[in-house]
Amino acid sequence: MKKIQISPSILSADFSQLGNEIKRLEEAGADMIHVDVMDGHFVPNLTIGPPVIKALKKHASILFDVHLMISPVHKYIAAYADAGADIITIHPEATDNLKDSIKHIKDLKKKVGVSLNPNTKISTIEKELKYIDLILVMSVYPGFGGQKFIPDVIEKIKSLKKIKEEKNYNYDIEVDGGINFENSRDVINAGANILVSGTTIFKENNGNIKKNIETLKEV
């Protein structure tokens, strides 16, 4: 089993102190930084764009795990790659040609992630699984932080792990949405090796980020 990694979502950070927040996360043992990009169209919220990511990248020495919840996504991929994204995750519903978008990310020398909403079936991306570096399983419907974890996604994680082992694929399984100390073990045991968490990391144990990261990694 791959080492468990934590990708804190800066959606829950203090936006007036984002550079310092990223430094705090690094010092506390975060493995990467999860950046949620929303366009107010594909999902009902607005967050940050390439200029902010470029500025924040100067404060970080760990990977930027950038989740693009924007549509149409294909024409914006290069801008986020140039801004400093190390992993670029897209939704199959947000592109006219998933295979072309995956190739575009690969051509830009970035790791490619594909995200599955709670109601998106694995069969939607089955033909592309061999080309993907990361599958992001959404355990809430994207667009807002602080939602409750949807338990049904556990079976999807198990299925992705089974396909990975049977086909000898090498993708990471990342889970995002309502991850906390109560459900993190179930998610890891199902096959996930990267957990995205915002509220739990920044708010639990009186904001003890280091303790919260370490607790989430426990199985």
Question: Any overview of this molecule?
Answer:
By secondary structure, the protein is α/β, with parallel strands linked by helices. The chain has one domain (5-217): Alpha-Beta Barrel (TIM Barrel), CATH 3.20.20.70. It is 34% helix and 19% strand. The chain has an eight-stranded parallel β-sheet. Helix 2 packs parallel to helix 3 (77-83). It is globular.
Distance, first to last CA = 12 Å
Q: What name does CATH use for the topology?
A: TIM Barrel
Query: How much is the radius of gyration in Å?
Result: 16 Å
What's the quaternary structure here? single chain
- Percent helix range: 25-40%
- Give the overall silhouette: globular
Reported for the largest beta sheet, the result is: 8 strands, parallel
State the order of secondary-structure elements, H for helix, E for strand.
EHEHEHEHEEHEHEHH
CATH architecture: Alpha-Beta Barrel
Please count the beta strands (DSSP E, at least 2 residues each). Answer: 8
Q: Write out the strand line-up for the largest beta sheet, numbering strands in chain order.
A: 1-8-7-6-5-4-3-2
Mean pLDDT: 95
- Low-pLDDT segments, ≥5 res: none
What would CATH call the homologous superfamily?
Aldolase class I
CATH class: Alpha Beta
**Portion in strands:** 15-25%
